[in-house]
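Quick question, first post here. What does this chain look like in 3D?
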Amino acid sequence: MDAVTHSPEDSRRRELGAFLRSRRERLSPAEIGIATGARRRTPGLRREEVAMIAGVGTTWYTWLEQGRDVRPSVEVLTALCEALRLDAVEKRHLFILAGRQQPERRVAAPEKVDGTLLHMLQSLVLQPAYVVGRRWDVLAWNDAAAAVFGDYSLLEGDARNIVHLVFTSPHHRRLLIDWEELARVVLASFRAESAKYVGDPDFERLIALMMRSSPEFRDWWPRRDVARRLTGVKHVRHPTAGAMAFEHMSLSIDDGSDMRLIVYTPLPEQNSIAKLRKLLEAQPAERRSA
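> Answer (accepted):
Ran it through. Tokens below.
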């Protein structure tokens, strides 16, 4: 029997419905002042309760959760955001899935880091940095990033992907202090960033691979948590340098692509700057001169 295929729009509607359902089931009746009886079995709110609060028809809202071809207006989406108590990141995610306030969908094209960006990357001598594409594949990196996080040149294909590394690499699991907390945020941020690519074959293939490869990913992905881009302080436990601390940020590259530059600045705590210098000095001469 041939496998059933879905168009990107079908996939988007199904994801929209699943996201609404997950937020509805998360919200308890008590949070919005609805009395519950002993016989209540539905986790969270009922569909008719969400519809009533948002001021829409129950049948129409049911169709929306079922992924049918209904097109909610901006006003209705705003009402649903309020009814479901969505935060700013979740609201943006919902609007993108609904096809509202969304940039024109780009045709996936080969991602290439140009010479100017490569030069900038290598000029960040004491700042580990790398460039990721729309799917969070690592496209380019500097020596400092290789010294701290590992030699990306030894990885190929999906293995050189941030989500894949965080969830399946034993090295990264040991390297990242508070791994579980960070992994949850990485996954939620990846889901939010990838909303515009729902139905994209490259994303679907990566997600299917992760579902097979990581029990944590398999458990957490259906929860549909979303979060904004990762910034702040990251603590690592390097196998030779020991504990290090970095302030990191994500910078969009203004070239019409979804590539981003991720930069880690070593902090004085844990003597991180001196430790990074030693790691760079210990790198093979051919890498330092590359």
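The first strand starts at residue 129 and ends at 132.
The mean pLDDT is 88.
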